[in-house]
Amino acid sequence: MSSLINNALEFVKEFFKNDTSGHDYYHTLRVYKTANKIAEKENANIELVSIIALLHDVDDCKLVGDDGKSLKNAKKFLTENNVSLDKIQLICSEISKISFNGNGENCPDTLEGKTAQDADRLDALGAIGIARAFAYGGSKGRAMHLPDTPIKEYTNEKDYHNNNDTTINHFYQKLLKLTSLMNTTEAKRIAEKRNEFILEYLNEFFTEWNGKD
Ligand code: ADP
Ligand code: NI
């Protein structure tokens, strides 16, 4: 492993230390590991995939407090680690295209960025994805499920981020859309399995909600 990746691992560990939930470091670590696994199958550049995955959330607007678009934390880390300007620009451009933004249209340009995006999205699926969704909804004081509320679709980023919808709605607004948005064959394979698990979970959730056993 290169010293850049080693330093980035140290950096994100320290960076997410102050996060009260403590979850985002482990999210980043999972994304890094999954991205590496996909990169091997897809013959992507491992170092580039790794650095994009490790830095993809260090400027998240939920943590940083600005709109998250300056990417100042990623830029500072890369500059301090003597990464060339060209490479910094490429890495930051790919990071800025990773997030979901309500409509799934955001897409990195390179195989490496696409691989990191797939790994990030895989972490929103399966058992961990379900846990993350309820943890997020809970942290915002949102209801799990309100049976009479229709599922709204958001086409712009601001409305998507500012809504106060239930966590079950989020499954339909984002999670169930992710599998068809995967960029790489390997991620699609993993996503299909995790998506099946979510569908089974929803089935069981509504069965219990409706008082059946
Ligand atoms: P990521 O870090 O994977 O790009 P986000 O920062 O958008 O994702 O969200 C972090 C986690 O919280 C994800 O697992 C996502 O599915 C979940 N999440 C985001 N928005 C909501 C919401 N409105 N309700 C429930 N869970 C959400
Ligand atoms: Ni993420």
List the helices and strands and how they pair.
Layout (H helix, E strand, L loop, with lengths): L2 H13 L7 H20 L3 H10 L5 H4 L7 H9 L4 H12 L14 H12 L3 H14 L17 H6 L4 H7 L4 H4 L3 H25 L4
The site of adenosine-5'-diphosphate (ADP) has 15 residues, from helix 8 and helix 10.
Characterise this structure.
With 213 residues, this protein is mostly helical. The chain contains 12 helices and no strands. The chain is globular, with a radius of gyration of 18 Å. The model has no long low-confidence stretch (mean pLDDT 92). Adenosine-5'-diphosphate binds next to helix 8 and helix 10.
Task: Give the class from helix and strand content and strand pairing.
Answer: mainly alpha
Order of helices and strands: HHHHHHHHHHHH
Determine the fraction of residues in helical runs and give it as a percent range.
55-70%
How many DSSP helices?
Answer: 12
The whole-angstrom Rg is: 18 Å
Uncertain segments are: none
Total number of strands: 0
Envelope shape: globular
Question: Termini distance?
Answer: 51 Å
Described by strand count, sense and barrel closure, the largest sheet is:
none
Q: Tell me the strand percentage band.
A: under 5%
Bound molecules: adenosine-5'-diphosphate, nickel (II) ion
- The mean pLDDT is 92
